[in-house]
Write a structure and sequence with these properties.
CATH class: Alpha Beta
CATH superfamily: Vaccinia Virus protein VP39
Largest sheet: 7 strands, mixed
Structural class: alpha/beta
Number of helices: 5
CATH topology: Rossmann fold
Helix content: 25-40%
Distance between the termini: 46 Å
Number of domains: 1
CATH architecture: 3-Layer(aba) Sandwich
Strand content: 15-25%
Length: about 220
């Protein structure tokens, strides 16, 4: 019990120092990448972006691609593209991220005529349109106002499907500053107030209760009236 308490205290101090040294979300996520704060040997984007942790996500997204005839994908944030490179998809892919060095590295290593990467701030920028817009495990790191703005931007860019990490059984959305800390968000609750998803991709192998929620934006408004 004492060890757990000390661990929580150390984490709180570490986060406070990190936030003080990096005043905004651009600097914070650039620092996370530059210093490899996730400490994962496979992916600079952390364990959640490993091939093992994304098996269910890849399978579910590939099923969506086939069922809906998806020809373009916007993936934001794309991170280091570790797991999406394994996705079976022959259409146009755009990967966006707030970290310029990450985009430069992805472009040099993976870029092609059908696979492009660009610097995007999903909170503040107008996002390029695509049939399927994917945002996995990102809003969970943002403040609630930032996450709500990002969800609206993502929805505006989706031509057919919007796919976002969601915890349908979570009871209350807590606020926090944008940082490396991850917490659960239920996108049907305030401040998001999205309607119930049309379908869900189970990701419980990595965390109980976690899904990729899927909304068909052509059938009804995203937000509840």
């Amino acid at each position: 019990m004492i060890v757990d308490y000390l661990r929580r205290v150390w984490f709180a101090i570490k986060e406070r120092v990190f936030l003080w040294r990096n005043a905004n979300r651009h600097a914070r996520f650039a620092a996370i990448y530059a210093r490899n704060l996730w400490k994962n040997p496979e992916s600079a984007s952390g364990y959640g972006s490993t091939l093992d942790a994304t098996r269910q996500a890849r399978t579910g997204i590939e099923q969506l691609i086939g069922h809906f005839g998806i020809t373009s994908i916007l993936d934001v944030p794309c991170g280091d593209f570790n797991w999406m490179q394994a996705l079976r998809f022959d259409g146009a892919y755009t990967g966006g991220d707030i970290v310029p060095d990450l985009i430069a590295a992805n472009t040099a290593r993976y870029g092609s005529d059908m696979r492009r990467f660009q610097v995007l701030d999903l909170v503040a920028d107008t996002l390029p349109a695509a049939d399927l817009v994917l945002c996995r495990e990102c809003l969970n790191h943002l403040s609630l106002p930032e996450a709500a703005a990002a969800a609206a931007n993502l929805g505006a860019a989706a031509g057919r499907l919007l796919v976002i990490t969601h915890y349908p059984d979570h009871a209350e959305n807590a606020d926090q500053p944008a940082s490396f800390r991850y917490r659960r968000l239920n996108l049907t609750l305030p401040p998001f107030n999205l309607r119930a998803p049309d379908r869900m991709i189970d990701e419980s192998e990595t965390e109980p209760g976690k899904v990729l929620a899927v909304w068909d934006v052509t059938t009804a408004p995203l937000r509840r009236s």
